[in-house]
Amino acid sequence: MYTDDDLSAAAKAGIFTDESIVTFRTFMANGQQTTSTTALVDEENFRLISGFNDFFVVFACFLLLGSVTWLASGVSGIAAGLAVAATSWGLTEFFVRRRKLALPGIVLLMTFMAGIAWVAGYLYLSITKAPFSAVLVAGIAAAMAAWVHWLRFHVPITVALGVAALIAGVIAALTYQAPELRQWADVLFVIGGLTTFGLAMFWDVQDRVRKTGKTDVAFWLHLLAAPLIVHPIFSQLGVLAGESSTLAGMIVFVLYIGLAVVSMAIDRRALMVSALVYVLFSFSTLLRTNGFVSSGFAITGVCIGSLLLMLSAYWHVARGALLQYLPQDIVKWLPPQKA
């Protein structure tokens, strides 16, 4: 198998021309590589694993990094963080830059960012004794580490993890400096989620036909934005506390329909998947309170699962119908609908 990065590298090496690669990608996107009539642009593909070797490498990396952390922690906490970051970077040079392994790249990125964040937070905390400010410093350090990592390796999830670290650090610092903001924490998370969603759309717009690595970056940003937006809203409705009333159930249902519409419009299923657990929990709780004690979750699962499977089967048809009702000024920024 080959990736878009492999094709780009072949073009730089002079094996293919840029025009021939564009022609080939268009040929594949039009469905000529399969007898299926489903368009590639509508499948929301992303690469996570290439084989069992990915799991083997990840297990070995965890074993090595755990041992390195144990040995370096005997020197100091800073040494442990630096050792983890340095080892992660070195492993990434081989397994990501040369071998193009996706899952190890994600894991090693996380451990690299964690090592840098730990060092920055540890140093700051040892000097100031301010834990929440240390979280901000650690978040900024992790975001900067993600930026440096992106410049070198271009792992698609890097941007999302950097944004997540920055959002966590900023919210922690704000709630520490202004304790009255803690009651507005859910609002802050929603703002962070909407900002992340906007950033995801920025990457999506640059690759509307989803043929380059930019669509993978957008995918991970959408996956991050969804829970940041959904979790605070459903938390305020009391869903997480098991306080599901008929009114709350109706609100949850309406919100989920709205998320489904947005998901179809932008051709991203992350919003729906992130909200699914809250919908299941809300309706199963509602059924239990109305006498379906033992079968509430099963009944909810059957109903919602059937609806989702039907939506998946007719996703392209439903999306095509939806796009007809949207203003053209909006449609022109969305992924095109193909037969």
Can you walk through the features of this model?
This protein is 74% helix and 0% strand. The protein is an all-alpha fold. α7 runs antiparallel to α8. It starts with a helix and ends in an 8-residue tail after the last helix.
Secondary structure blueprint with pairings:
Elements: H1 4-12, H2 18-29, H3 52-73, H4 77-95, H5 102-128, H6 131-153, H7 158-177, H8 185-205, H9 214-236, H10 246-266, H11 270-289, H12 296-313, H13 315-325, H14 328-331
Helix pairs in contact: 3-4, 3-5, 4-5, 5-6, 6-7, 7-8, 7-9, 8-9, 9-11, 10-11, 11-12
Which range best describes the helical content: under 10%, 10-25%, 25-40%, 40-55%, 55-70% or over 70%? over 70%
N- to C-terminal separation?
Answer: 26 Å
Low-confidence segments, given as residue ranges, are: 32-41
The major beta sheet can be summarized as: none
With helices defined by DSSP (H or I, 4 residues minimum), what is the helix count?
Answer: 14
DSSP strand (E) fraction?
under 5%
If you compute it from the alpha carbons, what radius of gyration comes out, rounded to the nearest whole angstrom? 23 Å
Number of strands: 0
What is the H/E string?
A: HHHHHHHHHHHHHH
Quote the average pLDDT. Answer: 82
Descriptive terms for the model:
339 residues, 0% strand, mainly alpha, 14 helices
Outline:
This protein has helices at residues 4-12, 18-29, 52-73, 77-95, 102-128, 131-153, 158-177, 185-205, 214-236, 246-266, 270-289, 296-313, 315-325, 328-331. It is built from 14 helices and no strands.
